[in-house]
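Section 3.1: Structural characterization of target chains.
Under the original work plan, the team committed to producing a structural model for every single-chain target entering the pipeline before any wet-lab resources were allocated. The record below documents one such target. The sequence was received from the expression subgroup and is listed exactly as submitted; it comprises 791 residues.
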Amino acid sequence: MKVNKMWKLKPIKKRIFVGLTLLAVLATFYWHWLPKQIFEVSYSPVALTEEGRLLDARVAKDEQWRFPARTEIPEKFKVALMTFEDKRFESHFGVDFLALARAIKSNLVSSQVVSGASTITMQTIRLSRNGSVGNRARSYWEKVIEMLLAVRLEMSYSKQEILAMYTAHAPFGGNVVGLEAASWRYFGRAPAQLSWAESAMLAVLPNSPTAIHLKKNRSQLKQKRDRLLARLWNNGVYTEMDYRLAMAEPLPRQKREMPKLAPHLIDTLSKKNVNKARPDFFHTTLSADIQQRISQVVKQSSRELQQMQINHAAALVIDNRDLSVKAYVGNSDFSSRFNSGYAIDLVHRPRSSGSVFKPLLFATMLEQGEIISTTLIPDLPTQYSGYAPENYDRSFRGAVPAKMALAQSLNIPSVRLLRQYGLEKFYDFLQHAGITTLHRTPDDYGLPLILGGAETTLWDIAQVYANLATISLDASQQNYKKLSVLSTEKNTSGRKKEISQGSAWLTLEALLEVTRPGAESHWKNFHTSQKIAWKTGTSYGLRDGWAIGVTPKWTVAVWVGNADGRGVPGLTGVGAAAPLMFSIFNQLDRSSWFETPYHQLKEVTVCKDNGYLSNGLCDSEIQLIAKNSHFDKITPHHFLIHLDKSTGARVHSECERVRNMSSVNQFVLPPGQEFYYQKQHSDYVTLPSFRADCLKVGSSNTKNPMSFLYPGEDTHVYIPRTLDGQISQVVFEAVHRKKNAQMYWHIDDRYLGQTQEFHQRAIYLEPGWHQVTIIDNDGFRTSRRFKVLGK
């Protein structure tokens, strides 16, 4: 009996087991039925300003205006939407059974579908299954699937998240998808700024976006909006006055264009995929007002530059407080992007650097104690291994103070300073400071590195100059800062800084002396003028014009040129880029100048004439140098000389008694420097000649009065051929302190002839090493060894 009973129970248990198993399978299937990613669609790249305003946007890959979903739903639209679509949205669990029952009854009475009873959750499911444009047939079976998935959706997401999904993917007519895109396309404002009437219009649009919109059945659209406004008033959402004002608002006449305030920036950010979490959403640091004004200034200036065949320009405005970018103009006119070069973002395009690295060499040499601001730097014909730099005006000044060489952007002193400092050291310094485009070895660049032999980007050079400002403002800054154009990247640090506050401030002080162009040239005459430290750069071949300016508050960086690298006359930093830079500064808030950081500076006593430490034989002055500078170079140019009291000729103790001498301190440059220096300085006094009898004795007391201008020591000379194929001559040049001195020329112990006053000789030479020697009529001699290169 018991056995039979057990056998009878087994089929029941088996059925229960099978049923439970089937139920578990169904439950598992149901749980995993909902995809992990509800919407498999592309989104429009969107950039916002620092204030949260729309800066720029692009259509998504499927040509729809579909902005990335946002969790915040404006209250007005939220209330209007739930009132119109799903008044019990907050209380049901995905399906509104009361609405469903009413819809079934209405449909049976009318013998047709007049109400779908779809909740916002169900509509979200339908949008995810259909895509925003809709392509699934409406059927009872589809409705059941939507109901089941809606309940499942409610299990995994909050009401706010579901509402955000719907709001971001609902169709609003044409290729406009989602509330954010619709708000900007229809009203030119963010959703949070919409009125009740505008919110109500957008709330009713997704109900039938293809049948009722601005261009089709406008009256029906207005009627639907007005009925919703009435329901809101009846529900006590707002006052009668608000209701009347809302009803009086007209519908927009047509869709608006999306803002295009930073087209190149949004393209660059999209390509770089800088926002991993939300790859299509960029909350930038740009200021809407500044961006708009600077874009207009660049566009206007570009029209003028185009008359000179200079077609493109780019600009950055940096807030020095945190190195955030406030304006980013990647090119002069994006509306002409289908023409050559205008679609290129030139902010990140490597271009020849021109002279923009010179202040950085100046700053690091101040820091290392190699120079001070007033140290004299030789400026005379110079050649290193066949490389012969020239100044922009093709003239020589003999010797110039370092800060003047920087302010006048002289090439020869800069090359000499780089050779003195060390090419590899400066190369490393540039990389540490943030120059990212040095992809060759230091030797590949050579000394032309300081004159535009390397490339840089507007982004990198703006960052480096902005760091000069931040270091000048804050002695506690330990690292270089990085530019930020996204709000999430603010205050990002780079490598440890190698310039102190004192050196940075001294560099910016030197850059105040750069002569401004045009109407700006008389800025010092007006007390209202703003102090701006600035530098220009012009690349070889007139292909690139740079201008970078710094105040305590702002750094402005400008590049002008042609995207294809074509050079044109007049394409210089001073003539083309600088006027645009100053125009940009005129659009920005003014700021006072940097305070002198006395606690990061120290005083030294130097000679007025040459900026070297005094040896007691010069007129001295006090100069400020960086606190940690170890500058210890004593003047090599000041001497005590002895003169014959009666004739004024130079004498020494081996040819004249001391009682017959008078002694004076004199500033004496080497002959080569002196030759050019005295042309620029009428007050320069040359050394008196020795009395004839003093030359015959005590030659160790006399200095050689002559020197070569060309060739330099161990120079390599390449001799070009003339048009008829003949080898050209090598031209030698020398200078002598005595104006009418005679020089006797020899090459490889072969006599060439003599010169007087103008000391030049030309000769044909075979390839190989040679030595040229000159001797004057007092017996002084000097030689130079050089190599003539073959083919």
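The CA atoms of residues 51 and 287 lie 7 Å apart.
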